[in-house]
Amino acid sequence: MKPEHKTRKEIIDQRLIQAGWNIDDRTQVVEEFSISVGSDLSSEPIVGYGLQFSDYVLLGKDGKPLAVVEAKKSSVDANIGKEQAKQYCYFIQKQSGGQLPFCFFTNGHDIFFWDLDNYPPKKVYGFPTRDDLERYAYIRQKRKSLSGEFINSKIAGRDYQISAIRAVLEAVEKRKRRFLLVMATGTGKTRTCIALVDALMRAGWVERVLFLVDRIALRDQALDAFKEHLPNEPRWPKQGEKEIVKDRRIYVSTYPTMLNVIRSEDKSLSPHFFDLIIVDESHRSIYNTYQEVLSFFNTITLGLTATPTDVIDHNTFQLFETEDGVPTYAYSYDEAVNHIPPYLCDFQVMKIKTKFQTEGISKRTIALEDQKNLILEGKEIEEINYEGTELEKKVINKGTNALIVREFMEECIKDSNGVLPGKTIFFCTTKAHARRMEEIFDSLYPEYKGELAKVLVSEDPRVYGKGGLLDQFTNNDMPRIALSVDMLDTGIDIRELVNLVFAKPVYSYTKFWQMIGRGTRLLEQEKIKPWCTEKDSFLILDCWDNFEYFKLKPRGKELKTQIPLPVRLFGVRLDKIEKAIELNEADIANKEIVELRKQIETLPQNSIVILDAKHESQRVEDEIFWNHLSSDQIEFLKSVVKPLFRTVSDTDFKAMRFEKDIVEVSLAKLADEKEKFNTLKDSIIEEITELPLSVNIIAKEENLIKQSQTNHFWSTATEDKFDDLILKIAPLMRFRESIVPLGPAKFNFKDLVSEKEYVEFGPQHEALSIAKYRELVEQKVNELVSANPFLQKLKEGKEITMTEAEQLAEALHNEHPHITIDLLRRVYNHRKARFVQFIKHILGIEILESFNETVFKAFDEFIASHSYLSSRQLQFLDLLRNFIVEKGDLQKRNLIESPFTLIHPQGIRGVFTPTEIDEILKFTEKVLAA
User: Is residue 551 predicted with pLDDT exceeding 50?
Assistant: First the structure.
């Protein structure tokens, strides 16, 4: 363990240099900065009076202190210097004037940053650059209050978007550092974030933003959105840029790209480079390795997810520092669909199951004609016996896939011409499955010359970029059908999608709803495309009973967390050392200790997981630690060092797996576990057998490969032989994939539809009778236009008298006794409209909004024009809107009664000022009079 002066010279100095500080330049860094401490300088309890010395003071370009760094020796907790560093900051401010310096305390390995008077201390993974500190100081001095900050409703103007932004702005102002927005797919999470970024930048709280996504296609989509809504903010990357640059304000990156940046040797980005990180689809890709990115940067962090609140993983709430089930703000799919007018599209589900899916493929289910063909081909029918669940796994039947394609073409929502399907995603099981479906489309519909359906998979470079397959599917008439494996399951924004085909089973509830979310977006009227001119719902063809599965198991299948291979190898080797020590096999223990230490050297030293554990793990750097491993030291290696191997990613995993198997089998031999030894030995022989001797590099080890497949080799196996296998055979394991495994059985049996029905699933499926009534009225009115003079006058744009209106009402009532003003008001949900207004609406002369539409629209406009309102005020308005819609009326006294007293005991008086209350009362009177 290093004393303080050594800690400073060997560790802290180096980390300051790494952050760009010249520690020999007293215009940048002053060591042993003298502070005159007197009892009159601070009301804080102080360490002592007289002249004291701060270990380091970091100076700005103006020569004034920007930060204090208090150093302690590496063996002690850095927090010991916390109070001392804080007092030095206050003393320096009193002594030098200007802003309060930022506070750092460290033992070299652990660094804590304290923005005094603003945030509690936080562990960070490097010192800030001088530019970082000056940016921090500028932001701290210039930022404005967020409570009344304008929200640009042209970017995100919907009521719930404004509420979400306001909720985050209020949390930021309360000095919270992490936030979680739960918003249904299609509700504009990206636009909401862009409007939030815009508000935070204008108010001076952030200068640089990182938007993290998990795929390149989503990166490009986010860049386009920022370009559209914040065109004047410079973005990274531009077309073709690979290397990170530091002169932009908006950065959009995938997790792997940013992980490579922060682990790079040159440390091209400071941990203090960003002011805000936005994590798209934050339930994915952020645990284990990629959480490093979030931990590395000292920022405020916003998580976004479309996963319903009730099924979000506990880890997500924990990561974003919110209570389980209580995100910063939530807006659900049902709320979006039930808004008037709806913000999202409803859907219908048609379940299709084939005979083979239901009953399997066997002699009992194969058609007689197909059985005859099998006999002619010399095949045994009795040998064919597959469960329905084994389709596309152990058995492939072209007839089943062809049947699904034909049923889709018959039942799908078509374009306005009624011939071709509208834009569709087929969710396929595997890439090979997608290719087979493409062949079937080309075979059944050759007239479309191979353009109808295309395979879109992430590893195909032709998918990306201008003119790529994804661009064609989004912006061109053809292809109409995207055959996808995982790539289009999440995040892709194509409003014209009207069909989704689940041609595979799905077991994750989160993923299932994300897939459904591909179809929920409504069309933008100013951007209508000829192949999709209208969309009020979309169709899901469920070919694998997914809806039934999630009714029975709402949370889906729980995936088991797998222990990373490098962690397992380290653990097995450690077990072997422990067993060797127990058996007094010192040579074996020492040999494995050497290998264990080599493995420790492979840990990525720039990983913050490693840096985080440095204070504890530095014990293994001491040679004395390894001289005699006690049970306590072995326990330390298991509990502290072993978990660090989850960070290893740059290695030959096939070689490592073989090495782990050899260490495991040698441990079984050492422990005299004969049964386990034989089982492991057999699996290793099988692995070695699969090495192709036709490859030159493998042929060189032919003798060892052949020997290692004999019982004699294993019965006489020694530690040297095991080491030989690791040294010579492990690196060859990457060639095993050149052995083509036996594929699934392939048939082309005729399949039949066994079940085909619409499934009631989703909101508002109960409104069919009302819709039919409206159809009936509209049909009767349109039929009478040519014969009724009053209808003709209205059609020509002329007005009719009260008497003529009564005669027209009577004529329609005679046509159908249920056409009455009361029923029309109920069906069209308008309590005050006159008979003639309904007729004009039906004839398309003027639009008659329903009462609910009028109320929702008025409240949306009111909220958009009052974007400075607080979260609680927005919550009150939301409750007020729903009250008016439900009751159709409002009295002043209602506003100080339940349900409004749930928000504040005094109702509206506790939430708004008297002036604001008057404005709201006038507004509601106007809404109710409409």
Answer: yes
